[in-house]
Amino acid sequence: MEIRNYQSSDEQGWVRCRVLSFLDTAYFDNVLKEKEQYENPAIELVAIEDGQIVGLLDIEYELQEGTVCSRGTGLGGMIWHIAVHPDYRRRAIASELLRKGEELARKEKLNRLEAWTRDDQWVHTWYEKNGFQQVDSYLHVYLEGETELKGNISSTLPKLYPVLSFAHYGGNQKDNIKKRFKRVHDCICFEKIL
């Protein structure tokens, strides 16, 4: 396996790897049609095996404190994407991508990495095994259909009827929200001090 910097010619393989990697996670519907471009500098790595992209890591990082990460002090980096093609999992590819990403982050004088993920326990376990700690959370709430939307989401425009809404909930009634709506995910922040 080779780990190298992402190149623009990798985009199709990057997108395919990301889509397949996310299908069996709580982010199954977060489908991208093209690779994201970042406002700030980024560490963008791919893992290549058998002539295809089998893993990826994108870390957008700060040149000024507080411009990318949501917490902490000093310069940090946000892991926007870390993924391994399902056929290549359990071969330490994600850990190798992270190790290389951390090495490059230290060269950029970053003091921490931050990553937000949803409620997949196997993902949480991976972050914890790699030295991250859970430091924050809120809920992703999907409201769908008349029963869930009524009284919660409405439109002031005539003839515009919401059918689906996505919301963030950061209050202290999380259990109530989870009971009230069918699709709710914990969105959890993991942080690693470098």
Automatic annotation (TrEMBL):
All residue ranges annotated as the N-acetyltransferase domain in the record? 1-154
Please indicate which superkingdom the organism of origin belongs to: Bacteria
Q: Which CDD domains match?
A: NAT_SF (cd04301)
Q: InterPro entries attached here?
A: Acyl_CoA_acyltransferase (IPR016181), GNAT_dom (IPR000182)
Q: Where are the transmembrane segments?
A: none
The protein, known as: GNAT family N-acetyltransferase
